[in-house]
Amino acid sequence: MKNLNAKITAFGKYVPEKVLDNFDFEEMVDTTDKWIRDRTGIVERHIAADDEASSDMGSKAFADMQERFDVDPEEIDLILVATITPDMFFPSTAALIQDNIGAKNAWGFDLSAACSGFVFALENARRFIESGDYKKVLVFGTEKMSAITDYEDRSTCVLFGDAGTCVLLEPTEDEEGVLDSIVKMDGMGKDFLYMKGGGSRNPASHETVDKKMHYIYQNGRPVFKYAVNNMVDAGTELIERNGVSNQDLSLFIPHQANKRIIDACASRLDLDDDQVMINIDKYGNTTAATIPLGIIDAYDNSRLDKNDLALLTAFGGGFTWGAILLKWSIEQ
Ligand SMILES: CC(C)(COP(=O)(O)OP(=O)(O)OC[C@H]1O[C@@H](n2cnc3c(N)ncnc32)[C@H](O)[C@@H]1OP(=O)(O)O)[C@@H](O)C(=O)NCCC(=O)NCCS
After folding, report:
1. pTM of the complete model
2. Residue with the nearest Cα to atom 31 of ligand 1?
3. Ligand 1 pocket residues where CB is under 6 Å
4. Are 329 and 295 in contact, with CB atoms under 8 Å apart?
5. DSSP code at position 248
6. Three-state SS at 230
7. pLDDT in tens, 103-154
8. Distance 225 CA to ligand 1 centre (A)
9. Where are the domains of the chain?
10. What is 179-327's CATH superfamily?
11. Looking at domain 5-175, which CATH architecture does it have?
């Protein structure tokens, strides 16, 4: 049997209608549009409706995929959902999406790797495809970050947004799709970025609610440093071991947590501005959805064409991080 690769053959996205811009935050906390733009690059972010959960946004992203491509939900074998904002502990968001979209022949599961969720899920999905046993795998990155954000904490509330995304992976015998990957984790990062309450260590109680333990906690400065160093290291290792030069890369699509992190990574990877995908201004940090939003916006703006080489890098809570070298498969 020939070696199989996994390629992206379809994609879809959904961003909620409601937008919070930086001026809205001036009314809510002690901040300014200038501080947010200068320190993060974010201008606005989309916020889900009260009755809209992560599975709803993922399902709407799949509807967008169906408008763009000919995808039959009954042909899907497996659904992987990267999210840290599942609708509930169980059943999984994957099960909820499976029911919503009518993928009645698929099984699936959720995967928790925070902002590295999409890279971790893509790595899993491609291994299923490469086994030869799976023909169509749907990968979702879908997050309702507004559900775990403290809108009284200026150091985190300005950063996050909501979105749903999905991509379809299928096998190919050609040298395209996911060419190589690096995925890493170091649990010492647990003290820098976490949500303390609601799990088995601190089950939900009046006390956990009073102490705001169901919101994101982040110590921004060290996270910033680890994010840059680890994304650059993973990206560099991947480029070098594949004999690719920086100039061969059509597009660098990093996780969108902070424009200054992206700029620092691009500069250390020696990339030109036109090689770097930045859309954090429009969406903020949507955690597991940032990289697929980057891929889709790049394609929609004619910045990705068949055979283009893209480098994806991610960093998130855990700590988790990774990089993927992708030869894009869909013509403009
Ligand atoms: C969060 C982040 C934007 C903060 O930027 P920073 O330049 O590191 O700022 P600091 O946290 O050091 O705070 C500097 C000052 O700005 C203040 N500040 C924080 N948020 C602010 C806001 N929204 N508006 C105005 N001032 C703010 C702080 O209170 C602090 O004030 P002080 O010096 O009086 O104490 C930045 O650290 C970051 O992006 N970190 C990494 C995020 C990330 O990668 N997440 C993980 C992957 S998801």
Report:
1. 0.97
2. 155
3. 31, 35-36, 39-40, 115, 154-155, 158, 193, 220-221, 223-224, 227, 257-258, 261, 285, 315-316
4. no
5. G
6. helix
7. 999 999 999 999 999 999 999 999 999 999 999 999 999 999 999 999 999 9
8. 12
9. 5-175, 179-327
10. Thiolase/Chalcone synthase (3.40.47.10)
11. 3-Layer(aba) Sandwich (3.40)
